[in-house]
Amino acid sequence: MTMIVNPFTFGSVTPSVNRMVFPLTYDERDSDNAITLTRAGSGPHITPAGFEGDGYSSRYTYASVPGWVSSSSRLTLACAVTAPLAPLQSARDELVSVCENNTNARQLLGLSVVADPRSAPEGAIAVRAWNGTQLEQIIGRPGWRYEFRSPVLSAGGYTAKPQAVLFLDADTVAFSVHLDDTESRVYKVRLSDGELLGEFTFGTSTYRHIANFARRSNGDVWASDYDTNKLVRLDLDASFSSGNAVILDVYDTSTLAPYVGSIEFVTVSGTEYLLLALYNTTEAGTHTYVINASLLGTATFTLGDQFKRFDLGRRIQGIAMRSGKMIIARNALYGVSGAVNGYIQEVDIVTAITSLTTNSTINATTNSSYLTGQWFGPSSYVEDVATPSN
Left, alpha or beta for 158 (phi > 0: left; psi -120 to 50: alpha)? Predict the structure, then answer.
């Protein structure tokens, strides 16, 4: 654990830095041998992998932290922790915490495992801080790992918001960010080391909210645009080479409402279909369309072009095929109007296309056998979903 106070530069003056470092590898002291930690409980402690505890009955404490910790207006905590899936022992299980030494134990700064307020009683990792009130932000949920952030966080006063994801190979992804609906940029990143390999922009005049990517069996890459309700076929190599989106075809789906969100391709009985899910915040009029992929090109969609459509629920942000099943990323669960959970669901879409009639509903109560899995998402507002192979 490393705590750093005032690690900032103001003008040309670099403030002094105070820190405490606890290696926790075959020792129970800080790196300066000035602070001896006190064991609480009799569980496993120092191991070859570092300290092990449960945050409740097996933990380390130290009662008298230096005065600069409590008096500082800025406190930074850097730590490496692993939180296994285990029942909570108390209201919160501490991973690492700078807190008051009393029954209240108000955290100045810390990481804890808490009951996830959006999916209790499951646990989640939260960062907590005190500024007159106790602040809490969930930063990790069971089963999810966070790799890297967008190469740009803002531009021209606009916030970069990651949206569409496409695996180019097992170690390379392309993903889009929209800058508050003023521009969409696409980045190519290598996952193994986070290196930025290329980028291009759609510009600021149109296609300003690229929401999804999908690749056909013939290699064609399509993107859906929430801004115009259209799909565009891209030449990715030429786009990354030039720095600007090179668009080969535009498939106009603006006859659909309210917004075109998610796209993916699936082959059923030798025929390739486009799966196109609308994004809607209400349950009414929300459909996922099944369209023969041979109709794609520079054309306009009409309702007569659909092969089938299904009601899979509202707020679908991303879809992807994996092992013959359709993975859905959505903001909220169908039929729960007040829900703000992010969900990942699995649907047997191949069997549904073959067996169900058009306009059929698929959810936990209607045709539930086609809903083959459901998990909490990493956040309350999940976006696109993709897998290295389908």
Answer: beta
The model carries a pTM of 0.75
> Kind of pairing, strands 325-330 and 306-311?
unpaired
Mean of the per-residue pLDDT values for the chain?
85
Residues 236/221, Cβ–Cβ less than 8 Å? yes
Instruction: State the burial class of residue 273 (Cβ atoms within 10 Å of its Cβ: 0-12, 13-18, 19+).
Output: buried
- 166 to each of 118, 148, 162, how far by Cα in Å? 28, 16, 12
Q: How much is the CA Rg of the chain, to the nearest whole Å?
A: 25
pLDDT, tens digit (0-9, with 9 covering 90-100), for 25-72 = 877 888 888 888 888 887 778 887 788 887 778 888 888 777 777 776
Strand order in the sheet with 123-130: 92-99, 107-115, 123-130, 134-140
β-partners of residue 353 are: none
Supply 221's token pair. Answer: 């890459």
Q: Report the pLDDT value the prediction gives residue 203, as an integer from 0 to 100.
A: 95
Distance between CA atoms of residues 274 and 290, nearest Å:
6
CA distance 31 to 8: 23
Strand order in the sheet with 210-215: 210-215, 221-225, 230-234, 247-252, 299-300
Single-letter amino acid, residue 259: Y
Distances from the Cα of 235 to the Cα of 171, 220, 239, 245, 249, angstroms: 20, 8, 6, 8, 10
Q: Which amino acid is at 216?
A: R
Nearest to 343 by CA among 25, 110, 51, 118: 118
